[in-house]
Write a structure and sequence with these properties.
By secondary structure, the protein is mostly beta strands. Helix content is 1%, strand content 46%. The strands form five sheets. Strands 10, 11, 12, 13, 14, 16, 17, 18 and 21 form a nine-stranded antiparallel beta sheet that branches. Strand 3 and strand 4 (28-32) form a beta hairpin.
Length: 362
C-alpha cells in the first residue's frame, strides 16, 4: 500500500539515503552517507568490507585461529567470517528491510567445527542481522548456538592443533588501526590485551567509529592482542570446557563520527533511552528500532522521556490508514512499509526532551 503524507514537518520520504546495490553478480553493497559495507556473493556472507569515504577500509583480515573482519568465533579453531573457507559451511545474505530510511540484512550461517575426538562435526548455527540507518548508525544482532560439541579434552581443534584452552564463543569486530588506536570514551588508547571495553571507539584518521555492546555484562568484553596486530573488539558469549546448544544473543551498535576527535561525543549518536508512544513506554530493541505493536487507528503522540534523543526509527501499526499526518516543531522524517508489518518511521533529527511528535493516521 502507498501511504500519503501531510503535516508541518518536512516529509523526506522521497530521499533514498540508505540503499542497496550489486557491485558484482550476487554480491550486496549497502550505500549510506559517508560509508559503504559489502556482503560477498558466496562463502560465508558476513561483511567483507566496510569503507569510510575519507579513511578507507576499516576492517582488518586475520588468520585462523585469530579474529578476522567481522564475525563469530568458537575458539579454538573456528572463525566465521567472509574470508574464511570452511568445507561444508553454508550461508546467505537476505535483505529483510529496504526503504527510504532503514535497510536491514540478515546473514544466516551453518559452519562445521571439528575436534580430534569427534566422529561427526559439531556446528555453529546462527544469524547475524545488520540494520543500517541514515545517521551512519549500524545495529548488529547475533543469535548463535553450538551443537554437538563434546567436552574439550583434546590438544586442539580445527586450525588450532596445539591449543589446550577451553572453548571461547565470541562475537567480534576486527579493526584496521593503521590510522590510529582503539580508545575508550575518555579518549585514552586501550593498550592492555584483554582489557574490558563495553564502550570504545576505533580511530581512523579524522574519523571515529563508536562501538557499544548490549548487554553490557561485567568482564564480557575485551580487546584482543592490540599490540601484536590489528585489535579485535570482542564480546565473550561463553567460556568453559564444555559448551551446550543454548542459543546465545548479543547486539553491538556502531556510530560513525566524521571529522570527530572525542569518543564520548560520537557515542551520543547511540543514546536511545525509552520513549513514550500513546502513553506506553517503549525501549529500543536489539535491531536499534523502537517497536510499538499496538494498533493505532487515531491520533497519538511520541514523547522523549529522558533528555534529547539521537536520530531514531520506530515501527508503528497504523491499521488500515491510507494517509498519515506527522506534526512536530521541526525536522525531516521518512516512512516505509516494514517487512515485519506496519510502517517504519525514521526521524532524521532525533527529538528534544521538550518536544512532542503527533502521528495522525486517517
Amino acid at each position: 500500500m502507498t501511504l500519503g503524507f501531510a503535516g508541518c514537518a518536512d516529509p523526506a520520504f522521497y530521499l533514498q539515503r540508505v540503499y542497496t546495490s550489486e557491485p558484482r553478480p550476487g554480491a550486496l553493497r549497502i550505500n549510506a552517507p559517508g560509508y559503504q559495507m559489502d556482503f560477498p556473493a558466496e562463502g560465508i556472507r558476513l561483511p567483507s568490507s566496510f569503507m569510510l569515504s575519507d579513511s578507507g577500509e576499516v576492517l582488518a583480515p586475520g588468520a585462523c585461529p585469530f579474529e578476522s573482519l567481522v564475525g563469530i568465533a568458537l575458539y579454538p579453531g573456528t572463525i566465521i567470517s567472509a574470508d574464511m573457507t570452511i568445507e561444508g559451511a553454508t550461508s546467505d545474505a537476505i535483505v529483510t528491510e529496504q526503504g527510504t530510511g532503514v535497510v536491514q540484512v540478515s546473514v544466516p550461517f551453518r559452519v562445521p567445527h571439528l575436534c580430534p575426538s569427534m566422529t561427526v562435526p559439531g556446528y555453529v548455527i546462527g544469524t547475524s542481522t545488520f540494520t543500517f540507518f541514515p545517521s551512519s548508525r549500524i545495529a548488529r544482532r547475533d543469535s548463535v548456538a553450538a551443537t554437538n560439541m563434546p567436552p574439550m579434552t583434546n590438544p586442539g581443534c580445527g586450525c588450532a592443533p596445539t591449543n589446550t584452552d577451553p572453548f571461547v564463543f565470541t562475537s567480534y569486530w576486527k579493526f584496521n588501526t593503521d590510522m590510529g588506536d582503539v580508545i575508550g570514551t575518555n579518549d585514552t588508547p586501550i593498550l592492555a590485551d584483554g582489557a574490558d571495553a563495553p564502550a570504545s571507539c576505533a580511530a581512523f584518521g579524522e574519523d571515529l567509529i563508536a562501538l557499544r555492546w548490549t548487554p553490557a555484562a561485567a568482564n564480557s568484553t575485551r580487546i584482543s592482542d592490540p599490540l601484536m596486530m590489528d585489535p579485535a573488539v570482542v564480546y565473550d558469549l561463553f567460556r568453559g570446557s564444555s559448551i551446550d546448544a543454548t542459543v546465545r544473543e548479543v547486539s553491538s551498535s556502531l556510530q560513525v563520527g566524521f571529522k570527530q576527535t572525542r569518543c564520548a561525543d560520537v557515542h551520543q549518536g547511540l543514546v536511545h533511552p525509552p520513549i513514550t508512544i500513546a502513553d506506553r513506554e517503549i525501549s529500543i530493541n536489539a535491531d536499534g528500532i523502537y517497536e510499538d505493536l499496538d494498533r493505532h487507528d487515531g491520533p497519538f503522540e511520541i514523547l522523549a522521556n529522558d533528555g534529547n534523543l539521537a536520530p531514531f526509527a520506530v515501527r508503528l501499526d497504523i491499521g488500515n490508514a491510507k494517509h498519515v499526518r506527522v506534526s512536530r516543531s521541526e525536522g525531516s522524517y521518512s516512512v516505509q512499509p516494514s517487512e515485519n508489518g506496519g510502517y517504519l518511521f525514521w526521524f532524521d533529527d532525533g527529538m528534544f526532551d521538550t518536544e512532542t511528535i503527533t502521528i495522525e493516521p486517517y
